[in-house]
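TICKET: design request
STATUS: open
ATTACHED STRUCTURE:
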């Protein structure tokens, strides 16, 4: 039996230090899977250069020339991890039966890809890679991430805990995913919504092979905040409730103030007055801020801007090449 065509999609942003090793390890994985007749000989690795400023694209081009497994696309500018991943998935899906996405930094165990493929062959459309331990992450990253999952679950966003973007998806699951046209992409939240038979595979997450995290704290916080506000209106409800409580408290305080006024103790009112002014003012600012956040989201969604632009596509598109040659 001829196996399914697998494409491994790897988003890369300034990853020149790790790519040679990543390419080597992923090629070895493909070779073994092909030798064991688990996947088709047409399986590929698709590197997505997300507007890197270093020699990432130069490496991908060089690698394409000598490694038949390697293909690449180059985005016209940095579109961010999620968008780069989507660019890769959409490009790959057109010519694959299943697609694995993995970070470039080799933190995820490439050996698990074999298990992914076996699960796919058992009939699962989505296979989530789930980290067993987070020992290699810093204490800070570990606790914030755990808190994040717990919080997300509380407000009704059901993520797969300890699963990042290391997973296999079948072509039909991907085609469903592509129907979600939102600009604020949070793939981890979307994929469980898509449905289809799914399963988890556990693995140990390692340290970054080389280079630094491309997710500094600022980007991490923005990512978490995006994840929340893209999927849930609970924060707005929460603010409404606080507002409601504040109104009740102020009414009680108001009654008390009038009582004091009538009793002739007016000079004692200044403290409570100034506190409530600041309290209510702060509350209003908070509420307006959160509502503004959602309006900002709506603003970005209604523009329907493309989520990425591909500058060079060395994966699909023979037609375009022929046209260029003809010219
Ligand atoms: N990445 C990307 N575009 C960006 C930031 C990151 O394509 O703007 C890629 C990066 O090259 C890596 C993956 O996304 O393959 C995850 O990034 P990183 O490993 O730095 O994140 P961390 O593991 O520290 O959360
Ligand atoms: Mg990483």
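STATUS: resolved
RESOLUTION: sequence designed for all positions
ATTACHED SEQUENCE:
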């Amino acid at each position: 039996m001829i196996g399914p065509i697998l494409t491994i999609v790897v988003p890369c942003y300034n990853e020149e230090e790790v790519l040679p090793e990543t390419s080597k390890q992923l090629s070895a994985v493909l070779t073994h899977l092909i030798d064991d007749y688990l996947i088709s000989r047409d399986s590929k690795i698709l590197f997505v250069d997300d507007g890197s400023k270093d020699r990432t694209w130069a490496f991908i081009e060089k690698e394409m020339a000598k490694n038949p497994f390697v293909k690449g696309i180059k985005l016209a500018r940095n579109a961010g991890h999620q968008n780069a991943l989507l660019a890769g998935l959409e490009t790959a899906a057109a010519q694959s039966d299943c697609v694995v996405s993995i970070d470039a930094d080799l933190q995820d165990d490439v050996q698990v890809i074999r298990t992914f493929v076996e699960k796919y062959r058992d009939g699962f459309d989505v296979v989530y890679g789930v980290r067993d331990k987070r020992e290699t992450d810093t204490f800070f990253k570990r606790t914030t991430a755990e808190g994040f999952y717990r919080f997300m679950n509380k407000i009704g966003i059901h993520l797969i805990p300890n699963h990042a973007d290391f997973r296999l998806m079948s072509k039909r699951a991907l085609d469903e995913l592509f129907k979600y046209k939102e600009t604020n992409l949070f793939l981890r939240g979307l994929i469980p919504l898509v449905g289809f038979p799914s399963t988890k595979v556990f693995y140990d997450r390692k340290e970054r092979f080389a280079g630094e995290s491309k997710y500094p704290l600022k980007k991490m916080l923005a990512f978490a905040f995006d994840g929340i506000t893209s999927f849930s209106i609970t924060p707005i409800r929460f603010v409404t409730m606080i507002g409601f409580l504040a109104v009740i408290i102020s009414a009680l305080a108001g009654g008390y103030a009038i009582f004091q006024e009538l009793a002739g103790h007016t000079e004692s009112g200044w403290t409570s007055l100034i506190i409530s002014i600041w309290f209510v003012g702060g509350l209003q600012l908070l509420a307006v801020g959160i509502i503004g956040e959602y309006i900002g989201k709506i603003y970005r969604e209604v523009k329907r801007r493309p989520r990425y632009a591909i500058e060079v596509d060395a994966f699909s598109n023979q037609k375009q090449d022929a046209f260029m040659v003809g010219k």
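CLOSING REMARK: Strands lie at 6-12, 44-49, 70-75, 98-101, 126-131, 167-170, 198-203, 310-313. Residues 270-303 form the longest helix (34 residues).
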